[in-house]
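User: Reviewer 2 asked us to show a designed sequence for the structure in our supplementary figure. I'm pasting the structure tokens here. Could you produce the per-position amino acids so we can include them in the response letter?
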């Protein structure tokens, strides 16, 4: 079972389980002042190509209760659309799990801080570069727990 877990944002955390677990972050910000807004989405779509063999993609489902930043919401929606397009194009199922569900699974608290998410990843033997990677690792382990026996 090959699972790709994504904490999608401009700085995208990812974790992938194949024979072993690999994880990291990819910075999707524009390279130059002259890059258009779509460059973020093109970089993400090209990067996803390395995961054509995935059996499942799971993303952190974000619902802003406070209105959030419009640009961040649009970027999240665009990146999520790319995940959905990629999954449908390559017949890879995809799903999402809520932030509080991921945090509670990983730390025991649905309101865990970024620092606690990183600390928990380290306690479990990982060395995440930042909270985005820690979130992706937590999401991957939740997906393994929920879905590995179903696929």
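Assistant: Here is a per-position design you can include in the supplement:
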């Amino acid at each position: 079972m090959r699972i790709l877990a994504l904490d999608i944002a401009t700085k995208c955390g990812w974790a992938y389980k194949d024979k072993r677990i690999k994880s990291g972050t990819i910075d999707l910000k524009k390279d130059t002042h002259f890059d258009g807004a779509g460059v973020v989405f093109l970089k993400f779509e090209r990067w996803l190509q390395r995961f054509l063999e995935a059996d499942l993609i799971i993303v952190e489902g974000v619902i802003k209760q406070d209105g959030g930043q419009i640009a961040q919401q649009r970027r999240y929606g665009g990146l999520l659309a790319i995940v959905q397009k990629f999954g449908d194009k390559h017949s890879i199922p995809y799903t999402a799990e809520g932030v509080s569900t991921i945090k509670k699974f990983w730390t025991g608290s649905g309101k865990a801080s970024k620092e606690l998410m990183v600390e928990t990843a380290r306690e479990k033997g990982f060395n995440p570069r930042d909270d985005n990677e820690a979130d992706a690792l937590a999401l991957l382990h939740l997906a393994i727990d929920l879905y590995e026996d179903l696929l």
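For the response letter, you might also mention the following. The helical segments are 39-48, 70-89, 99-107, 114-123, 131-147. The two ends are 7 Å apart (CA to CA).
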